[in-house]
Amino acid sequence: MMNPSLFLALFCLIQISKLGFSFEEKVQRHEFVSVTNFGAVGDGKRDDSQAFLKAWEAVCQGGSSNTKLLVPQGRTFMLKPLAFVGPCKSSSISFSIRGNLVAPSYTWYVGRYPTWISFDSISGLVVSGGGTIDGRGSLWWGKVSTRPSAMHFNGCNGLRMYNLRHLNSPRNHISLSCSKDIHVWGLRLIAPGDSPNTDGIDISNSIGVDISDCIISTGDDCIAINGGSSFINMTRIFCGPGHGISVGSLGENGEYATVEEVRVKNSTFTNTQNGVRIKTFQNGSGYARKISFEDINMIASGNPIIIDQNYHDASKNGRVSSNQNCHLTQSFGEPWSKSLNGKGVKVSDVRYTRIHGTSASDQAITMNCDAELGCADIVMDHVNLVSATSGHQVFASCNNAHGSYVSSQGSCLTTG
Ligand SMILES: *[C@@H]1O[C@H](CO)[C@@H](O)[C@H](O)[C@H]1NC(C)=O
Ligand SMILES: *[C@@H]1O[C@H](CO)[C@@H](O)[C@H](O)[C@H]1NC(C)=O
Ligand SMILES: *[C@@H]1O[C@H](CO)[C@@H](O)[C@H](O)[C@H]1NC(C)=O
What we know:
By secondary structure, this protein is mainly beta. It folds into 2 domains: 30-106 and 113-166 and 173-183, Single-stranded right-handed beta-helix, Pectin lyase-like (Pectate Lyase C-like), CATH 2.160.20.10; 221-311 and 334-416, Pectate Lyase C-like. It is built from 2 helices and 28 strands. It has a 17-stranded parallel sheet that branches. An 11-stranded parallel sheet has the order 5-8-11-13-15-17-19-21-23-25-27. The protein is elongated and about 65 Å long. The protein binds 2-acetamido-2-deoxy-beta-D-glucopyranose (3 copies). One 2-acetamido-2-deoxy-beta-D-glucopyranose binds at residues 208, 210, 231, 233, 263. The active site is at 243. It is found in: Secreted, Cell wall. Keywords: Cell wall, Cell wall biogenesis/degradation, Glycosidase, Hydrolase, Secreted, Signal. Residues 1-22 form the signal peptide. This is Polygalacturonase.
């Protein structure tokens, strides 16, 4: 028989060592690799790019216990244009931006660096942290014609991005391309209403993107969905000022472009140039279809509902082609259709449900569809807009737009 007190002592020892083990495990699992461990200063002036890249290397190529990169709170890190590149060893990498990031205090040659901060070929990336990312766009706007985007995620399947603030990008704030399964929420993207081409979020060649609970105030589209994109959901987006949420522009320079399965729900547009928009170039080919806008509130929005199949971009200055060289592209959409070649981008199956509020222009609904292609299967269900100016009546204008309406005022859709 073992001495009871010896037994107790042994038992306790085992429990303590177990405790110690699990505690250590916990620490390891929650361990962050801070950029300050690699020499980042965070005074907002000194160039911290190399320190960030070294920290990235440690996280991306490190073992499974070092998968979290930390940008500590209370400091501002100046970064030159740089790229965080995968693939990484771990299938889940966290990039926690608790402090602030700021772009250089000078402009650079965009031919070499079209993006300030880019993320390439990283699966399972989680970017969050509550920090502010300042692109210092005012150094560029109206001064440099070709400007960089602030952040670009290319080939980042499974990306999660939330709880961050982006300010004043030189061009678009966030670009997503060649990726699948993306969730974005709780972002604030802010730039002046008159800043050029400062889109909030641009999506191209991507499948399965869910964006919710974002506040976007910009000088261009709050969100733009470009060619090669499908299954894109946007919920509770507060847009304004800005040019609204746009499908397109599609088919620029005769390109073949396809977008389908897009839903915009429970969103508010305040003092925007447009509300929900589909814009395609007459010259292109492809299609935009299976698109729905539901429970949308307009507050003095300029063109609350608009389809423009004859789009011309007067302010192309500073845009870099959205064309991404990605292998995903080939698997999107239908094969090249000769019959559509250069004859326009087909628009069909577009549903507007419970769109209400006020229009800043008297023409609340614009369906400007191509004479040959037309727009097909447009449904307006409980669309009720009034003028933001008292005493004014709003009206709808349709060219070659076919579809039906339920309890919607002033519709001009033709059946067939
Ligand atoms: C988009 O919304 C639909 C309907 O709510 C849902 O079935 C689908 O999974 C969503 N897609 C994404 C990518 O979140
Ligand atoms: C149509 O595209 C061609 C190039 O494919 C271009 O040269 C022409 O200017 C375009 N026309 C219009 C009206 O955009
Ligand atoms: C959208 O708004 C409607 C009406 O306000 C509400 O009943 C519904 O729960 C909301 N849905 C989402 C996904 O926010």
